[in-house]
Specification:
With 229 residues, the chain is of the alpha/beta class. It has one domain: Rossmann fold, CATH 3.40.50.880. 35% of the residues lie in helices and 24% in strands. The strands form three sheets. Strands 2-1-3-4-10-9 form a six-stranded mixed β-sheet, with helices on both faces. A two-stranded antiparallel ribbon has the order 5-7. A hairpin with a 2-residue loop joins strand 9 and strand 10. Helix 3 crosses helix 4 (87-95). The chain is globular and about 45 Å long.
Length: 229
């Protein structure tokens, strides 16, 4: 089985998920937006669309946005399992024709509130475990569509759309490499007045528990889609 991870910036990779995905029988390949041919995403047994500093509203500037959206749309039409994180979740929403708009900036650690329906899914591992949030855009599902997780600032933090699961926060983050994120996103951090030292310290305190929840989540997720296949 093949897992293809669509990566937008080098340091936002599969993180703590990668070893668990491999342990469950998947070979893992990365394709890099704007550099590689993204076609392998189309037919992979599992596609994971990772985060990045731009958004779906930047499609006029970055052609890979529409390319990725088209590939996700094709995967949904074929009922192929697709997991999106942050920008990846926004790309899933965009591929479904949902609105993705500028929202409240969430940049730091905080818990997510799970819906009753989420407790029966792998998302249950995130209950009462702070997660890293790093986004300023907001997904707007169609009326009546179930939202599986939320925060006070952002109503849609997780959702299912056909064969895809979108997650707005970052359960894949590996705390030991947070410095790559802090350096890579330093312009954004300065522009938004984020206390880098405080974010680094919070990561040191909370990343291990988040990683354990993230590994438990991806283990359940890949085993569930394997059972369906």
């Amino acid at each position: 089985m093949k897992c293809v991870a669509l990566r937008h910036v080098a340091f936002e990779d599969l993180g703590v998920w990668e070893a668990e995905i491999r342990a469950n029988g998947y070979a893992v390949d990365y394709v890099d937006a704007g550099v590689d041919d993204l076609a392998p995403v189309r037919d992979a047994d599992l596609a994971i669309v990772l985060g990045g500093p731009h958004g779906v509203r930047d499609a006029a500037l970055f052609p890979s946005i529409d390319e990725a959206s088209d590939l996700i749309h094709a995967r949904l039409a074929a009922s192929l399992p697709t997991l999106g994180v942050c920008l990846g979740a926004q790309l899933i929403a965009h591929a479904c024709g949902w609105e993705v708009r500028k929202g409240t900036l969430e940049l730091g650690w905080g818990e997510v509130d799970l819906s009753v329906g989420a407790i029966a899914t792998p998302l249950r591992h995130f209950a009462r475990v702070p997660q890293l949030h790093w986004h300023g855009d907001e997904i707007v599902p169609p009326p009546g569509h179930e939202v599986l997780a939320s925060t006070p600032a952002v109503a849609c933090q997780a959702f299912v759309a056909g064969s895809a699961l979108g997650i707005q926060f970052h359960p894949e983050i590996e705390g030991e490499v947070i410095e790559r994120w802090l350096i890579g996103h330093s312009v954004e951090l300065r522009a938004n007045g984020v206390d880098v030292a405080a974010l680094r310290a919070r990561t040191r305190d909370l990343a291990d528990a988040s990683a354990m929840a993230g590994v438990a989540f991806i283990r359940d997720y890949v085993r569930a889609i394997g059972a369906l296949g």
